[in-house]
Amino acid sequence: MTRLCSYLFVMIMLSQQHSFTSERGGPKIETFFKELSFTPSFPNENDLVKAYGAGSSIVKSGYRYHCYYSKSKKVWVALRVSAEDKIESPVTGIIVTILPLTKKVVPPDKEIPEVSVKGIYLRDKENKIKNVFGEPLREYVSNLGENINLKVLEYFPNNLTDGSCIRFYIKEEIVVGFSFSSEV
To answer: In the chain, pLDDT over 70 holds for what percent of residues?
Structure first.
């Protein structure tokens, strides 16, 4: 399993304590990786709920998702936890999107900063992804919540700090979401 979810979770939790900013004011994931030197472990569900509240909880395909909506950023965030792991319940996936993920709108207890993936932001053009990452390993059509028929570009970078799986969700050539997940 990769440690990207841990890095991103820690980045979000500590972002107000560090001055890592991007051209849009949010933390840059790659800057965070380079600047911090620590041995992360996957955050668990208890840490997540303590930091952000329970959110809107959904169980699907053996996973539990804690979903939050940031009104100020107009962004949905879902954190995936194994519903079957009752002891540690590690966070193993993160979805960030401008599309609604649930009918129930629950704000996080503390603000979630805007994040990018190697300088790619939500609402950027699709061609920016291929300029940065190259051709995807897979390209297909899938759903994200109740949002149907989204184009998905899927990457499995060799560098584990980038995550074992990065997916970009595209609608009408615009990045409407991205996810990082640990895939076994």
So the answer is: 71
